[in-house]
Specification:
Shape of chain A: globular
Structural class of chain A: mainly beta
Largest sheet of chain A: 7 strands, mixed
Radius of gyration of chain B: 13 Å
Strand content of chain B: over 45%
Number of strands of chain A: 11
Oligomer: heterodimer
Number of helices of chain A: 0
Largest sheet of chain B: 6 strands, mixed
Helix content of chain A: under 10%
């Protein structure tokens, strides 16, 4: 158990809908990362937050947005969902968000868009 | 563009032998390389980090090398066991960058 929690574990929804994925980092970690992992692709970095501030942005679609709250939990909002958004979404946390930090991954949320 | 490449074909190794996985990078000069293990349906788990000024790093049966001339990292598992079967991911980062760039991973299968 990494100490990172993600909810829900599974999510099935329809195209055009909006969903929110939630992540609670390990106790003491200030950085949160979001990743998308599809079957035919590796881990795609979406966004990184440090202590409530956006620190780095990857290939995140405009339909997706994220936030880190004062209690350090984070939410990833996915809207106008398309079939291609079906994937595993991982949240990871680290102490400071430094390049040498170990990232601790949550169990993931499996999103299925029908 | 910056790219991290790992062998997309599964690697089949006999139990007890050494498994060697490759991570190549192009258009990029990472300062750090990290290796993670991922089991099906689960999040990656950190194994080792190596810095560009380190040639080699070891942890129990694991060894990682970093060759800046060849632009390559090798990940070795000695005395491999069926429990080592998993997908292994390579991630690269720089001091000026707050994100890891990931390879697609190599699936390792250790046969008894």
């Amino acid at each position: 158990d990494s100490g990172v929690t993600q909810t829900p574990k599974h999510l099935i929804t329809a195209t055009g809908q909006r969903v929110t994925l939630r992540c609670s980092p390990r106790s003491g970690d200030l950085s949160v990362y979001w990743y998308q992992q599809s079957l035919d692709q590796g881990l795609q970095f979406l966004i990184h937050y440090y202590n409530g501030e956006e620190r780095a942005k990857g290939n995140i679609l405009e339909r997706f947005s994220a936030q880190q709250f004062p209690d350090l939990h984070s939410e990833l909002n996915l809207s106008s969902l398309e079939l291609g958004d079906s994937a595993l979404y991982f949240c990871a946390s680290s102490v400071q968000g430094a390049p040498t930090d170990t990232q601790y991954f949550g169990p993931g949320t499996r999103l299925t868009v029908l | 563009s910056q790219k991290i490449e790992q062998n997309s074909e599964a690697l089949n190794i006999q139990e007890g032998k050494t498994a060697t996985l490759t991570c190549n990078y192009t258009n990029y000069s990472p300062a750090y390389l990290q290796w993670y293990r991922q089991d099906p349906g689960r999040g990656p788990v950190f194994l080792l980090l190596i810095r560009e000024n380190e040639k080699e790093k070891r942890k129990e049966r694991l060894k990682v090398t970093f060759d800046t001339t060849l632009k390559q990292s090798l990940f070795h598992i000695t005395a491999s066991q069926p429990a080592d079967s998993a997908t292994y991911l390579c991630g690269a980062s720089m001091d000026s960058n707050y994100q890891l760039i990931w390879g697609a991973g190599t699936k390792l299968i250790i046969k008894p």
